[in-house]
Amino acid sequence: MQIGVIADTHSKMRPAALEALKGSELILHAGDVGRDEVLEALEQIAPLVAIRGNIDKTGRAATLPDVQDLEFLGHAFHMLHDVKTLQIDPQGRYRVVIAGHSHKPRNEWIGDVLYFNPGGAGPRRFTLPITVGRLQVSEGGVVGEIVELPV
User: In the predicted model, what is the mean pLDDT of residues 126-143?
Assistant: First the structure.
């Protein structure tokens, strides 16, 4: 199962991000969506699960949940906007923790948990790259990939 992961679009839906997410069976948006058009564009590609970020005060994004617990092929996922607000120890409980907020891509295993941040796909922040992520999920495990987009 291929899952596309995007975050921190801040109302900017880049065509390159949409292209990189094509082929996803599901898309996860880890917050700071911005305008409704972002959600609508992603929903044209695949089913979408999104959470609210700190900028999401209006439109559909304002009604999104703050966190999502999901399960794919026997692997538990926890999605929140800012990993610094994680108030539980995910070891033994979740296989993947997905977060956005920092705009810094992260694809790091700590113990048995993959900490995954697709980075920022909207306006560039400082000198950070513009990125999205992909998760390949099978019964045997989860593999993350960060995809840098042309600017």
Answer: 97
